[in-house]
Design brief:
By secondary structure, the protein is α+β, with helices and mostly antiparallel strands. It has helices spanning 3-10, 60-82, 107-122; strands at residues 28-31, 34-37, 88-99, 129-135, 144-152. The protein contains three helices and five strands. Strands 1-2-5-3-4 form a five-stranded mixed sheet, with helices on one face. The longest helix has 23 residues, at 60-82. The radius of gyration is 15 Å and the shape is globular.
Length: 155
Amino acid sequence: MGAVDERLAELGLTLPEVVPPLAAYQPAVQSGAYVYTAGQLPMVEGKLPVTGKVGAEVTPEEAKELARTCALNALAAVKSVTGDLDRIARVVKVVGFVASASDFTGQPGVVNGASELLGEVLGDKGVHARSAVGVAVLPLDAPVEVEIQVELTEA
């Protein structure tokens, strides 16, 4: 068990199975020293625990927890390509999409769920640049979707 896997266990987290693609794409791809994940929905055991817009059917607090789940799913996608999360040199970029009610402006707080999880799991390697974007709707009526880009150490 690697250091990142041990840290996940210390936090009481289990890396889930990679969420199967919903369309014609791969959950993650490696190009050189970088891994790019597809947008990860907050799937838990193959299902969305909550659907709807943040600021309407979904509270910002619920959405922040869902963003944590998205980040955990993204780490699973990275591991599916690298075989070892200890190869992460750093998280370079996080992009979070928040399905938002028309008057909701708290997207950064929601996406903090993903950013905070990456920091808890990876420490300084989890510090990243980020975008938090409000959108009208996401696949399957998910409240949030997160993609990450990571730089790898040499194998």
